Amino acid sequence: MSISATPTATPASTGFELHAGRGRFNAAFFWLIDPYLEWSLRRQKRRVFGGLPREVVEIGSGVGANLRYLPAGGTLVAFEPNRYMHGPLRAAARRSEVRLDLHECMAENTGLPEASVDTVISSLVLCSVQDPVAVLTEIRRILRPGGSFRFLEHVAARRGTPTHAAQRLLRRPWAWAFEGCSCQRDLESAVRAAGFASVTIRHYRVHTPLLPFNTHIAGIARA
Questions:
Q1: Out of 84, 167, 171, 204, which could bridge 212 as a Cys pair, Cβ 3.0 to 4.6 Å?
Q2: Cα-flanking dihedrals φ and ψ of residue 119, to 5°?
Q3: pTM for this predicted structure
């Protein structure tokens, strides 16, 4: 299988304006914290990303945290609008011996042909896209029948819990620092309502001092 992408959306054309300071901060932050995030999430990632095919589409590839789950010699079609992530992402692809097809493009409009993709992956991305419903619609559009969307995301905590209170209290500075990231989205409901043929989701917690980040889901949705 070979995917040919002709992106029709750019950060400017979709209304996305990359703040240079925050863009650089996020690129450096996620590069530095990658070992800790991998330690925290690897059990779920191994379950959800196990057995990935040789060619995968990823939305929000960041600095390449998920390249380690692709087979050597495979191809990652990556959509990452933060250009300051691109250098570390290319370096990680070289280390992983994965061919990188990189697009500075928003996930709401990838430009990929309809029903052309076997597997789409994401981790810690749907929290920060401008329109998660549009992104999920686009993922369904490009997936072949029987194809899979494999994801790990942090989500809103149950109401009345300390984590939920922290998410409400810190929602504005959190979103400002992390390029619009919302720690209050009900992404499980969004995925289940997106029209996939089947959805399997597991809830889990990450134990970290960053309390708004503690509540997560991981799952597989099939077209």
A1: 167
A2: -145, 130
A3: 0.89
